[in-house]
Design goal:
With 78 residues, this protein is an alpha+beta fold. Helix content is 19%, strand content 45%. It has helices at 4-13, 60-64, and strands at residues 18-24, 30-40, 44-49, 54-59, 68-72. Strands 4-3-2-1-5 form a five-stranded antiparallel sheet.
Length: 78
């Protein structure tokens, strides 16, 4: 079973790598974008989204509850 601590450690390993994230945005609306994990903090992490030229942040709890899904993209080393 995943815990917040194990999720935080896993996300820290992905820092600087390209990922695809998927999140629910209300009734039957799903946002799926690609970005690079910029920073990891004790309660959240930030992504730079190339298509929007902006940053977004998510909490580790959102990954635990599967409100947000992260997928490491192959060949994502910059």
């Amino acid at each position: 079973m995943a815990t917040i601590t194990s999720i935080r450690e896993q996300v820290a390993l992905y820092k600087g790598l390209k990922v695809r994230y998927r999140t629910a945005k209300g009734r039957r609306k799903v946002e799926e974008r690609q970005g690079v994990i910029l920073e990891t903090y004790p309660n959240l992490f930030t992504l730079y989204v190339e298509s929007q030229e902006s940053k977004v942040s998510f909490s580790y709890a959102e990954l635990l509850t599967r409100e947000v899904e992260l997928e490491l993209l192959s060949g994502s080393r910059n």
